[in-house]
Amino acid sequence: MSIRIHPKGRRPEEGEVESPARAWTVWKKSSMAFVGTDGFSVYDGDGKLAFRVENYARMSKYRLGEILLMDAVGRPVICLRPKILSMHDQWNGYVGDGGNRRACSNSLLFTMKRPSVLCGSGKAVVFLRGSDERSMPWGRVLGPDFIIEGSFRTRCCEIHGVGGEALAWTSPKKVGSSMTLGDDVFALIVVPGVSHELIVAFIVVMDRMYSKTFAT
């Protein structure tokens, strides 16, 4: 599966009717129901499984290692690896299974981290491959390609592009007009032209950055 990177979204051509934002349902549960682990199951608007994460162990990133985001049939989409001893809780995303560690730089998609170790419960910045090395002619470094703000722990956050526009957002999943399904099930809305794979990968990393304390 190819990864489409469109941090600004895609503008419709003249005369073209722009499609509506796409709604997904994220269930923080392994589709394989492995005992003793968490996971992610992401369903499209028709209720079909689209992405999943299995063997999502309840442990710190120092023992967790990498996390593999897969499509519905188990093909690797993005490999997520924490940077050990990072002051900003940095994670790197790689194409597919990440390949061999010596060749990782060739498959790097993005770097995601907290802008500060003191930030609250839902802020992160994302630099697409090479963007953190770009600079203006007078030496000013360009900002991140994505900014994530809000409160991820309450499932209320937005993902903004470089121009400040909202590209995706999460909210508690409701049944009817008032009943919510709890923190383990929430809605994800993605605007047209934005890579679903990238957005889902960001959500998985946000859960690791701002996960609640697990009961033992």
UniProtKB/TrEMBL annotation:
Stretches that traverse the bilayer: 185-206
Domain of life of the source: Eukaryota
Swiss-Prot/TrEMBL keywords: Membrane, Transmembrane, Transmembrane helix
Record flagged with keyword Transmembrane helix: yes
Family to which this protein belongs: Belongs to the LOR family.
Protein name (database record): Uncharacterized protein
Species of origin: Vanilla planifolia (Vanilla)
